[in-house]
Amino acid sequence: MLDDLTTAVSSPTAWPAAYPRGYAVVDVETTGLARDDRIISAAVYRLDARGEVEDHWYTVVNPERDPGPVWIHGLTSDVLEGAPLFQDVAAEFASRLEGRVLVAHNAVFDWQMIAREYARARGEAPVKQRLCTIALSKELKLPLPNHKLESLAAHYGVVQQRAHHALDDARVLAEAFRPSLRAAAAGGVRLPLHECRPLTEWTDRPRIGQQGGYRPTSWRPSRKRPACPYPNPGRFEPGERLKQGMRVAFSGDTSTERDLLEDRATEAGLHVAGSLSRLTSLLVTNDPDSGTSKVLKARQYGTPVVDEAAFGQLLGNVEPAAEA
């Protein structure tokens, strides 16, 4: 069986013609998760059309601010003080991404961080599509206990050497992505590719109460999200899992950029709703006592409410839609 699979994916005629011609497996470490946070290190493994490694690249980046959770990424202010600014590495970074599909674990996050940095530098990242390895593992129905990178790596026997180091995380992901790509090709699986839309404007203005920071004037061109392919299974039940097809609405400020949360929900198979109705499965808000129209309607309809942190946990284990 294994020999048959190896032969199938190595055969030039068996490889899906619609698959991309190259990939850039990316990992970025950041000062945090919010819209004002910055990239402090980045790594790219370039792979060819069939997932073979071509080369790799790594850089640290001076974020021009506090480095954030040093206990996670290990990059102190002293280490980053002499590092290049993002605009100094933007051209080299772009050359690694040019003409390739960006591959990352939770790709929406990495893409948004990269897009924001290019917007600050008055440029655009040359990326048209991204592929999330979490979404791919779901398409392949891999028997993973959760959607952490370490679980995907363990499934393929890839050994992590330095977790939360961009270069090693990118290496681990590249080694795990290769067999996933081959399995997808052998099974004729359609890759879960998503369009990347660059930010168009950026204003260097501080948030209220901050000495410095960034606030976007326009995150990206307005767009219509693709229709959710799954039927609405009904309301979310506290203590249970989210199910693909559930309608989710957001209200109020979030620490993570709203587009990022909505894209993560969409990629998990949820229906992101712009308004709240009796059909809404769940409302996500950090201020359930506010008087916004969505919160008031949620009270009226008895719609379940969770905060951003709880929603993030729920996104990690969304139940697949029932087969028709």
UniProtKB/TrEMBL annotation:
Presence of the UniProt keyword Nuclease in the record: yes
NCBIfam families attached to this UniProt entry: dnaq, PRK06063.1
Keywords: Exonuclease, Hydrolase, Nuclease
Region listing for Disordered, in residue ranges: 204-236
InterPro entries associated with the record: BRCT_dom (IPR001357), BRCT_dom_sf (IPR036420), DnaQ (IPR006054), Ribonucl_H (IPR013520), RNaseH-like_sf (IPR012337), RNaseH_sf (IPR036397)
One Pfam family from the record: BRCT
Domain of life: Bacteria
Protein known as: DEDDh family exonuclease
BRCT domain ranges (all copies): 240-318
CDD domains recorded: DEDDh (cd06127)
Domain Exonuclease: 22-186
GO molecular function: exonuclease activity
Keyword Chaperone: no
Species annotation: Streptomyces edwardsiae
Cited SUPFAM superfamilies: BRCT domain, Ribonuclease H-like
